[in-house]
């Protein structure tokens, strides 16, 4: 179990706090809006009505002792910058901050945020990728130009072993896991002799251009 603080309980912050709490973590949820704080009470360890842009308030709440902080104050640029700065000064090692523009994200990164989230942009990218690619089951962007995606195997893969497919040589990608549905299990780093079935789904990592070729069944 880890200890988190979530500051700013808009839709992003609210569901982040709720999900972390339901995963079994300790969560301090902070917002200036009493109604929102009331709603998050059953989904948090401690729900507090407070102005997190006040450093003394953060210290009094013991925020300096958390394992990680999530800042959902994207619409309030000044507040998100101040809170990020304060958390950095207090020694919080992991700071995830929501940003609304690229420049906002750069500022937050410069003053101490360890990860920047653009919820609307990230969701739009994922949805657009999904609806434009019928075989795509899931998609996770990694560093610039690289991703992990889950696909239904193209018909040309069915009945062949991973060794026969030669995906690394032909496409420059790697199968990191296979989800089997008969029987239901996940096979991590499958053997080269693993035979692909039409009921399987493949979790593949590689450059986006190479992944796109596989997803579309190109050679």
For the sheet with most strands, the description reads: 6 strands, parallel
Q: How many beta-strand runs?
A: 11
List SSEs in N-to-C order: EHEHEHEHEHEHEEHHEEEH
**DSSP helix fraction:** 25-40%
Topology:
Blueprint: E1 3-7, H1 11-22, E2 26-31, H2 34-40, E3 46-49, H3 55-60, E4 68-71, H4 77-89, E5 94-98, H5 102-111, E6 115-117, H6 119-132, E7 136-141, E8 146-151, H7 162-165, H8 167-171, E9 174-181, E10 184-188, E11 201-207, H9 208-215
Parallel strand pairs: 1-2, 1-4, 2-3, 4-5, 5-6
Antiparallel strand pairs: 7-8, 8-11, 9-10, 9-11
If you had to describe this structure to a student in words, what would you say it looks like?
There is one protein chain. Strands 3-2-1-4-5-6 form a 6-stranded parallel β-sheet, with helices on both faces. The chain is elongated, with a radius of gyration of 21 Å. It has 2 domains: 3-117, 3-Layer(aba) Sandwich (Rossmann fold); 122-215, 2-Layer Sandwich (Alpha-Beta Plaits). The model has no long low-confidence stretch (mean pLDDT 85). β5 (94-98), α5 and β6 (115-117) form a beta-alpha-beta unit. The chain is 36% helix and 27% strand. The chain has helices spanning 11-22, 34-40, 55-60, 77-89, 102-111, 119-132, 162-165, 167-171, 208-215; strands at 3-7, 26-31, 46-49, 68-71, 94-98, 115-117, 136-141, 146-151, 174-181, 184-188, 201-207. It has 219 residues and is α/β, with parallel strands linked by helices.
């Amino acid at each position: 179990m880890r200890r988190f603080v979530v500051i700013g309980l808009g839709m992003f912050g609210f569901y982040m706090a709720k999900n972390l709490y339901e995963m079994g973590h300790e969560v301090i949820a902070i917002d200036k809006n009493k109604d929102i704080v009331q709603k998050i009470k059953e989904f948090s360890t401690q729900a507090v009505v407070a102005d997190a842009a006040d450093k003394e308030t953060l210290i009094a709440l013991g925020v300096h002792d958390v394992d990680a902080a999530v800042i959902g104050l994207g619409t309030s640029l000044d507040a998100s910058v101040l809170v990020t700065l304060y958390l950095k000064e207090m020694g919080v090692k992991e700071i995830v901050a929501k940003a609304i523009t690229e420049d906002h994200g750069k500022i937050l990164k410069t003053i101490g945020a360890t990860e920047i989230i653009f919820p609307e942009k990230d969701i739009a990218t994922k949805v657009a990728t999904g609806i434009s690619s019928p075989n795509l089951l899931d998609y996770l962007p990694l560093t610039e130009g690289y991703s992990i995606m889950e696909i239904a195997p193209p018909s040309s893969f069915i009945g062949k072993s991973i060794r026969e497919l030669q995906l690394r040589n032909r496409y420059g990608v790697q199968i990191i896991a296979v989800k089997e549905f008969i029987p239901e299990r996940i096979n991590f780093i499958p053997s080269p002799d693993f035979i692909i079935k039409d009921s399987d789904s493949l979790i593949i990592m590689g450059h986006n251009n190479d992944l796109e070729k596989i997803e579309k069944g190109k050679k």
